[in-house]
Design brief:
With 258 residues, this protein is of the alpha+beta class. The chain contains nine helices and 13 strands.
Length: 258
């Protein structure tokens, strides 16, 4: 009789909704956006194991290490397991424009799908780790598991909506509104990961925030000063405490139903 694999036993004995990430037991699938691929309701235990087989454990990265470079050949997407990352584009004259902030459980690298080249560079803002998902294997498996394909298409759609929202934010809104919206974004993403939505550390420097939001470093500092003076947030270097969430939402023009 062929021995039963540990993975099969694991899948049989533990409901997949509460399974730990197979590459990092300290992070559950429910806390990771990769879970939206691993755990769609329609997948059974055998299909989940097939998906597990194509996910590669990535190396640990230190602050300043690159996950991938702009214009590098696109081979995989990456699910962030720990730490935070930023993406940025570099112009011909060497100017860098921050284009994204990614936190644990979020997926990076989708900007390479259309052209087979990454459209930006990705760098670790602190010590972090990731799961690597070779895209050709994901494509192949998606043709065999339709519900997985549908889930991935929804993820792509969410990325498009997020990019459109950021473009709208930086093109027409005042600096106070942009900074408030970023704080609310980090707050809501922390909440989804079961972390505090009112106490968190800013992953990016003020210079990076300015680049991301299309304002100057000095403007970012002035906005934080105003928010603190109004007792909406408490700022201690990168440590943020949201004191008045309704007021912050009002500045960002966000309603509770949004």
């Amino acid at each position: 009789m062929k021995p039963t694999s540990k993975a099969a036993i694991f899948a049989k004995e533990i409901p997949y909704a509460v399974r730990s990430c197979h590459t990092n037991p300290s992070i559950s699938c429910g806390e990771c956006r990769l879970g939206e691929l691993c755990l769609p309701i329609a997948l059974d235990a055998k299909e989940i194991l097939r998906l597990d087989e194509i996910v590669k454990q990535g190396r640990a990265l230190s602050k300043g290490d690159y996950l991938y470079h702009q214009d590098e050949e696109f081979k995989a997407i990456y699910a962030i397991r720990a730490g935070s990352f930023k993406t940025f584009k570099t112009s011909r004259d060497g100017t860098e424009q921050v284009t994204g902030l990614y936190l644990p459980g979020e997926i990076m690298g989708m900007d390479g799908i259309s052209s087979n080249r990454y459209g930006s560079s990705a760098i670790a803002l602190e010590t972090g780790s990731f799961c690597e998902i070779p895209f050709h294997l994901l494509e192949d498996l998606s043709t065999k598991i339709p519900s997985l394909q549908g889930r991935f298409f929804r993820l792509m759609g969410q990325e498009i909506v997020k990019d459109q929202q950021m473009l709208t934010l930086v093109s027409s809104n005042a600096a106070d509104e942009r900074v408030a919206a970023l704080l609310l974004s980090i707050s809501s993403r922390n909440h989804r990961r079961k972390l505090s939505p009112t106490h968190f550390r800013l992953p990016m420097t003020r210079a990076d925030i300015g680049s991301y939001l299309g304002v100057t470093l000095e403007t970012v500092s002035r906005v934080f000063g105003r928010l603190q003076k109004l007792a909406i947030v408490k700022v201690d270097n990168r440590e943020i405490e949201v004191i008045d969430m309704p007021a912050l939402k009002k500045i960002a023009k966000v309603h509770d139903g949004d």
